[in-house]
Amino acid sequence: MWPESRQKCPKHFLPLLNGKSLFQINYETLREKFKPEEIFVSTTEQQVALAKAVATDIPESNYFVEPEMRNQGPATGFVAANLYKKFPDEPFMLVQVDVLREPREKFFEMMDEVDKLIKEKGRVVTAGMKPSFAVMGVDYLIVDPATHRMSQWLGRGEKEVIEKYLATGEALIHTNHYAWTPRAMLECFKKRKPEWYEPLMAIVNGGEVVAEYTKMPKGPIEEVMQFELLDGFVVELPFNWIDFGTWESVTKYLGERGMYQPQDVQEVEAKNNFVRKPAGKYVAMIGVEDLVVIDTGDALLVTKRDQSGKVGQVVDKLKADGRAELL
Questions:
Q1: 12 in any annotated domain
Q2: What is the pLDDT of residue 123?
Q3: What mean pLDDT is predicted for residues 16-37?
Q4: Is the sign of the CA dihedral 2, 101, 156, 165 positive or negative?
Q5: What's the Rg (C-alpha) of the chain?
Q6: Parallel, antiparallel, or unpaired: how do β-strands 233-236 and 125-129 relate?
Q7: Would you state the pLDDT for residue 132?
Q8: Which positions ≥6 away from 324 have C-beta within 8 Å?
Q9: Which of 221, 243, 265 is at the close of a domain?
Q10: What is the mean pLDDT of residues 33-61?
Q11: pLDDT bracket for residue 31 (50, 70, 90)
């Protein structure tokens, strides 16, 4: 989502949808079901002020601030460790805020189903989505829909096996939504990743957070969960899971809902273009179509809509060139 998405303001804090960010929309959704004191925010030093500016009624103690980025494994363990101090045996769910879930009523129904599963079975639960077409670069789960049991985890590199299961309709795209109790999650870390478990328990027992957190090696949570889920459960999403991974996905979402209404943008023999720019700047587009134009003042992106996924190459070049001010 560059050039708007930067390290200090990633995409889930951008006002993408009628002036609201994905973080704000997800928080407002959760507030329909939960009180502020029942919602916890796990974030980083760079982003905590952005979160607090939106979720103003969440208690200060409900913010879990990671001392540094060490990937999702240590971050998930950090959540479990902090929740363990408050209610070690109460089920919780990790809700990523960089996607939308519609309709939200179905999301709440799934949460209730997951809560019931954990209380009855005591095992980890996650969620998956049946793809309408082949998507590569994601993990897949082979699941029995009658029992919610996973029989196989397919990593994103297993292209041939994934395509085989996609053809039979047995594969679900893994959409996370990990849920368990803090105690049970830490116990599985003890078994699978003691190098994460020991610093986390030190934090639980009052150890210095920065010193203990930085002891954990970086790694994805899948290093634990792809094995634990063989004895866990997977529910299929009963709602639309909308991932805004590129500018094309944003333009599609807004266009289908009639939400794209640009100001001071003139098109002459032009169509299907999408423009985001600073207020007060006038843009004229002549004889072009299917373009995305993102102007942030210090950077300008012009791309074909169906090529917007290549923006990562631009970011890689900026990193290689040491252009930290644009990252």
A1: no
A2: 96
A3: 95
A4: negative
A5: 21
A6: parallel
A7: 74
A8: none
A9: 243
A10: 96
A11: very high
Indicate which CATH number applies to the domain containing 146: 3.90.550.10
The pLDDT value recorded for residue 134 is 67
The reply to whether 229 and 253 lie within a common domain is no
The pair of three-digit structure tokens given for residue 190, joined into one six-digit string: 């003890």
Handedness of CA 303, 304, 306, 307 (dihedral sign): negative
Q: Are residues 221 and 285 in the same domain?
A: no
Q: How many domains does the chain have?
A: 2
Per-residue pLDDT for 60 more than 80? Answer: yes
Residue with tokens 């207020």: 279
**Final residue of a structural domain among 243, 275, 302:** 243
User: What integer pLDDT is reported at residue 302 of this predicted model?
Assistant: 97
Q: pLDDT category, 160, cuts 50, 70, 90?
A: confident
Task: Compute the distance between CA of residue 133 and CA of residue 129 in angstroms, rounded to an integer.
Answer: 11
Residue 156, pLDDT score = 73
- 9 lies in some domain: no
Residue 320: CB atoms within 10 A of its CB come to 8
Q: Which domain holds residue 26?
A: 17-243
Q: How far apart are CA 306 and CA 289, in angstroms?
A: 12
Task: Say if 6 falls within a structural domain.
Answer: no
Amino acid at 173: I
Tell me: do 37 and 117 sit in the same domain. yes
Q: What single string gives the DSSP state of each residue in 226-274?
A: HHHGGGSEEEE-SSEEEE--SHHHHHHHHHHTT----SSEEEES-BS-E
**Same-domain check for residues 235 and 270:** no
Q: Is residue 11 part of a domain?
A: no
> H or E segment at 194?
helix 194-204
The yes-or-no verdict on residue 184 having pLDDT over 70 is: yes
SS3 call for 69: coil
Closest CA to 225 of 262, 198, 196: 196
Q: Which segments of 41-178 does DSSP mark as H helices, in order?
A: 48-54, 72-86, 104-121, 159-168
pLDDT given for residue 138 in this prediction: 82
